[in-house]
Amino acid sequence: MTKENLQSDxxxxxxxSTSAGLFCQHGYAGVSMRKIAESCDMKAxxxxxxxxxxxxxxxxxxxxxxERVHAAVATALSESAGTASAFDRLRHAISGHLxxxxxxxxxxxxxxxxxxxxxxxVQHSTLETRRRYEALWDGFLGDLKAEGHLxxxxxIRSFRLMLIGALNATLDWFDPAPGDISELADRxxxxxxxxxxxxxxx
Length: 202
Description:
Blueprint: H1 3-26, H2 33-39, H3 44-50, H4 54-80, H5 86-103, H6 105-114, H7 120-146, H8 156-168, H9 181-194
């Protein structure tokens, strides 16, 4: 890689990181190319050298957020495959999602906070990345069901939507600075695996 290419990649990464924070803070409508350029200490013309539009930047931000969570969960499942119990595999998958979600919050928060605000064309541009991540969970949960660890009447898609929705909601209330993400993952896994009700259920 040439020095010029390296500098270009560094600039692009800085723009993406800065933009992710701006989108989370101000929403889709509150961010312009001019605001991004000013926040990066760049001239607007220089920004257009790297990205053609705000939507192009946003698509990369959204995809990077999903990909980071996907990679974390895939690694967690790979590391626990074949040796861990069903409970531990579920706990590791939840922990992977939460760690990536809360530790890369600028990129991952953009997906949770502003996805419904963005133009339909931007949403469609991220669908393939989203569906790959959904397929990872559907495959894992389907394996648990096939192995007899989930009730036979559990709908995999509904369970996945409920679980990821609950995990994503932690962005609104959990502070990873004083909090322990692994402990939170353990609590979520325990409630999912062992339930919350005690005694006979009518």
